[in-house]
Amino acid sequence: MLIVLAFHATGCGSSATPGGRPGEMVYYGEGGDIKGFDPVRASDVDSALALCKIYEGLVEYDYLARPYRVVPCLAESLPEISADGLTYTFRIKKGILFQDDPCFPGGKGREVTTGDFIYTFKRLMDTKNYATGSWIFAGHVVGVDEWAKASEDRSKPTDYSRPIPGFEAPDRYTLRIRLREPYPQLLWALTMQYTFATAHEAVEFYKDDFLNHPVGTGPYRLKRWQRNYRMEFERNPTFHGQLYPSEGAPGDREKGLLADAGKPLPFIDRIILYNVREYYTWWQMFLQGQIFTVGISKDYFNKVVNADLELTPDMVKRGIVLRKEPQMDVYYLGFNMEDPVGGGGKTPEEAERHRKLRRAITCSFNQEQIRETYAGRLIPASGPITPGTTGYDPKKIYPWRFNLDLARKLIAEAGYPDGKDARTGKRLRLSLDMGGAGDAETRQLGEMYVGFVRQIGIEMTLNFSLQPEHWRKLERKETQMFSAGWVMDYPDAQNVLQLWYGPNESPGVNHCNYKNPEFDKLYQRILTMQDSPERTAIYQKMADMIVEDCPGAFMFHRLIYALLRDWVVNFKPHDFPYANMKFYKVRPH
Amino acid sequence: MTAYIIRRLFSVIPITMGVLLLVFVIYRVIGGDPAVRLAGKNATPQKIEQIRKTFGYDKPKFFNWQEAWQNTKPAFAQFRMEFARYRSKEVGVGTVFQAGFRLLRAPMAVFDSQFWQIVRQFAQLDFGKSLQSNQRISRMMADGVVPSLCITTPIFVIELFVAIALALLCAFYRNTWLDRTFVVISIVGMSISGLVYIMLGQYFFSFELGWFPVWGFEGVNYVLLPVAIGVIAGIGGSLRFYRTIMLDEMYQDYVRTAFAKGASHKQVLFKHVLKNAAIPILTNVVVAIPFLYTGSLMLESFFGIPGLGRMTVDAIYTGDEPVLFAMVFIGSVIFVIANLITDLCYTWADPRIRLQ
Amino acid sequence: MTDTAANSAALAAKPQTLWSTAWRQFRRNRLAMICLGIVAIYVGVFLYAESVYWFARLRDVVPSYKVADFAARNAHPSTAHWFGTDFAGRDNLAQLIQGVRIAFEIAFLTSAILIPLGFLLGALAGYFGRWVDTFIIWLYSVVDSVPSILSIISISYVVGRGMKGIVIGMGLVAWVGLCRLIRGEYLKHKQRAYVAAARALGAGHLTVMLRHIAPNVLHIIIIVFTLAFPRFILTEVILSYLGVGITGEPSWGVMINDAKQRLWLGVWWELGGATAAMFFLVLALNIVGDALRDALDPKLKTAEGSKA
């Protein structure tokens, strides 16, 4: 007993690091559940946010400019692109140092060269790493697929000295990427954390533990990480330096977003992020000032925001500002097209009936009701393309929007008048996989869906499962209907249209298992097309095809409202905010 | 005595193996294939197969008869050949022994299976890696023990002493209004869900009144509220239990004798009753020890204490099987050891028990 | 010890005595009688809720407690809605009443697994002894060693979420206590004269076990059921919090877990209603269980630890 108590006394003392040193700019926030600091493996938003504080890539998003554009980061300038669109030549800035770390000789970080990028890209393609981002290069860059294939041999370690023909290093600071076909999304893809420069010394030194010891070039370094609880970042003293942008989108100057133009980044000295799982705890911590920002859940919305979508006086008095973040995402309910009840059907006649059933169900969903329940924080969706992307038309009217009369007519035509099978008289029963077990919001949304289809006589059961279980069911095509969402990786509609491309069927991302040869042909065509009005027209045509066939009921795009303490400045909402912390500033409060 | 202790020590093995078997059956036999999960979202069947091989999930579940048979057949042939050569004086007796040894070893391949692999691994305290965070589980556990103990130890100690003190008070004043009040309070306390205590406690004392931080584990003031809530939520059950024990002792013959001898009420209570109640109290205390380790699931996840309880809840939420597997196993082993220690304490305190 | 045989012979001859004496003693405990009344009210509510559920189910209509009214979301308690409404404008009182149904269903279904399992294994172990006993002791030591909430979750993880998972999980974990008690009783009864007499008269092992001894240990099952019931209810709350709770139907655990999000808004009636509904039932059952135990078998008192 005594041992236990003594143990306990020292334990509590050592982990206490409250507050900050005087004059220091500290930011407290919510960090979510992260999967470690290995750039090639992190595919979720929280991990990306954490990684991008430490690692950097060749290019990044412009913080202020809209529409989004790519600006150089570790590259000196945007790449020279050959006329045929097949060769990209990057010049890397000189004098960029990896942060100091014991993995380097003498503990001093060395200079970043082209070799580091090629090494990083190889790691991404090495199948032994189970890299989640290998799709960035796979099929696009000359020789990567062969290299990846060779790395599958488990009997020996992957040979990193073997070159990939598509990645060339003419000199220490030049990187040439050669493509098989034009790949217009390449620059967008290079802003993602998968391709961020890593040092082979760190990977070799830490081996399995590399995901706990990030060694990057970015503005911050990891000071302490208590898994599942807290991350602490501090300023990287050998950061190569970057200046706050001096040009912004129209209106940014009036909002004070250019006050710090030309000043060196980052502003904040220390970042402390907690992993608060319970939303309502997060909320209480925010109001108590323990953390600086919080999203607003639907239940709280009316309490903090009035009818004109302005903050209530009480909140303003507390020094809280409202921020509105449009989300480039789309949420839909997918039908498994291989399902015997609502799927593609075996005969054209059956296919037509099933299509009518899918349309009827879609028509029964009251998007307006959901929007109201979520206090107007949703944009009803009219198709697969997300707002802010070329091809999105805000004025488009969803042909299967809420319309009970149409729904009843369609379901009768589908062979289920009043929801009962015309032949057997039995009520139609469907099952919907929601995922999100244990999450009250998901359950409540599911209960709303059940209520909607009940209006046309369909009895729907809900299945809730943990994320891994949910994915597994989708991969094995074991669902009938499922709830899913897609958050854009880059602002190009191709990214979301891949969800309906036949060869991507489960276990790929096309979990509806939708197959339409005509659609597939168009998809293959747009893959290599540069941005042009013609491509936009094809995007819209493809979207219409999906809406017409109705393999999924498109529900909404999110519009996130969040609260921020007014002492956090230089904050501009961004769809890809991963590296943005370096621009924020904390005023004394 | 020594023989008894040794016998008792050995009895731990079948129970530990049983626990392992139970957990294995739940997660691996009925639970499905962990390789599919490991492979992640966009896995190809080849990739899954590859993982299955690397982690040994392609092996049989319990006994690898096939492998054993395939090993034994050539070994037996070899042995027969060597033996024949020995009979014809071609080789010495040593070679025959070697072949014989190989023959005996060959069927051991029957243990080349998933279950026995886990047994071997766990015996070396290697629990593998978390599916969610890719961290070594043994390391995650080491990180989580201290925060857990920071919460559970004070709860445990305070609850024990307060409950025993109140129980003595109740026994002393039994069937008076004082006793009855405490009994009612304890039953009322037991009838409210622990979750409600936590929710209301956090809401009022942290959020509304701002006396404590809402969440986190940065200093002593972060621990006070969870400890207080833990004590309040648990004290009802403990008090009722200890009171029953004390009252049971109060009606024993020796207490009557002590009173008859002219001992004072107080003397009887502290000298005789408390001493004799020690054994049931001890049992209850030891049974609660695994709780120190698993931490309080609810308290830790509500108050953001980065301990084992929170780790377990995380594992439940994310379906992190290896972590759950390891937590269940360690929790059980600690329970088994705690029980063993109680038993040994009993025999030490009361040698008659050994004979039963 | 000499008069035990005579005692039990008397008991065996007139099994009614135990029950009637117990009932007389129980009746004298006024608090317990009040609580029995409360339990009776809950049973009435349970039957009502069950009929509402089946009525809607057989008629193939939407049950009233599921009808959403989005205009009246999170409404304060009023004469129309005594306990206010929830996030979808459904009447909280109707949900609480259905919560009674779920609580009773969980308790009954779990007991349907727990009692036969615990009784049979306990009886076999106590009656036959030797290797059967050793094996069953090993079995329950193993099950008992695993922290119970973790094994319930593990089981429900495998058999599926929701009612099925909770019931099977709790049933397969909670039989240990009953098994231990029954085993002890069988060990005792095996030695009694009436058992020897029955055997001498040519009764088979099964007959002795089930026909002769079983009626003498029946009261233990009743006590265990009454005392386990409240624990099932409290466990369901924790399981709901951990995401393995009931889905599709209103349960108290789900209501409490939903309520934490809205406490900040002053929506106290959801939490208050569910806590109160649960509190009175658990309290009444605890007191009735204690009184039953005192009346039927005072020696059982310390058979269970303070930590469930």
List keywords for this structure.
heterotrimer; A: 589 residues; alpha+beta; 8-stranded mixed beta sheet; 4-stranded mixed beta sheet; 17 helices; 17% strand; globular; disordered N terminus; C: 308 residues; mainly alpha; MetI-like fold; 0% strand; elongated
Short description:
Chain A has 589 residues and is an alpha+beta fold. Helices cover 28% and strands 17% of the residues of chain A. In chain A, the strands form 5 sheets. In chain A, strands 11, 12, 13, 14, 15, 16, 17 and 18 form an 8-stranded mixed β-sheet that branches. In chain A, strands 1-10-9-8 form a 4-stranded mixed β-sheet, with no helix packed on it. A 4-stranded antiparallel β-sheet of chain A has the order 4-5-7-6, covered by helices on one side.
Mean pLDDT of chain B: 82
CATH superfamily of the largest domain in chain B: MetI-like
Q: From N to C, what is the helix and strand string of chain B?
A: HHHHHHHHHHHHHHHHHH
Biggest sheet architecture of chain A: 8 strands, mixed
Structural class of chain A: alpha+beta
Report the portion of residues of chain A in β strands.
15-25%
The first-to-last residue Cα distance of chain A is 45 Å
Task: Tell me the quaternary state.
Answer: heterotrimer
Low-pLDDT sequence parts of chain A: 1-19
Low-confidence stretches of chain B: none
The coarse silhouette of chain B is flat
Q: What about the largest sheet of chain B?
A: none
Globally, the shape of chain A reads globular
Mean pLDDT over the residues of chain A: 86
Through-space gap between termini of chain B: 13 Å
Overall strand count of chain B: 0
Q: How many H/I helices of chain B? A: 18
Work out the helicity level of chain A.
25-40%
Q: What is the count of helical runs of chain A?
A: 17
Structure description:
- The complex is a heterotrimer of chains A (589), B (356) and C (308).
- By secondary structure, chain A is an alpha+beta fold.
- Chain A is built from 17 helices and 20 strands.
- In chain A, 28% of the residues lie in helices and 17% in strands.
- The model of chain A is unreliable at 1-19 (pLDDT under 50).
- Chain B has 356 residues and is mainly alpha-helical.
- Chain B has two domains: 65-112; 137-349, MetI-like fold, CATH 1.10.3720.
- Chain B starts with a helix and ends with a helix.
- The model of chain B has no long low-confidence stretch (mean pLDDT 82).
- Chain C has a single domain (19-69, 77-307), classed as MetI-like fold.
- Chain C is built from eleven helices and no strands.
- Chain C is elongated.
- The model of chain C is unreliable at 1-14 and 302-308 (pLDDT under 50).
- Chains in contact: A-B, A-C, B-C.
- Chains A and B meet through helix 1, helix 7 and helix 14 of A and helix 3, helix 4, helix 8, helix 10 and helix 16 of B.
